[in-house]
Amino acid sequence: MWAGVDIGGTKTAVVFAADPPAVLSRAEFATLPEQGPERVVERIIQTIRAGGPAPRAIGVSCGGPLDSAAGVIQAPPNLPTWVDVPIKAIVEKEFGVPCRLENDANAGAVAEHRFGAGRGTRNMVFLTMGTGLGAGIIVDGRLYRGTSDAAGEIGHVRLTRAGPVGYYKAGSVEGWASGGGMEQLATEAAAAGNTSLAERLRRNGKVTARDVAEAARSGDAVAKKLIRGAGRRLGEALAILVDILNPERIVIGGLAMRMGEDLLAPARAVMRREALAASVAACAVVPAELGEQIGDLAALCVAMGEM
Question: What's 85's DSSP letter?
Answer without folding.
Answer: B
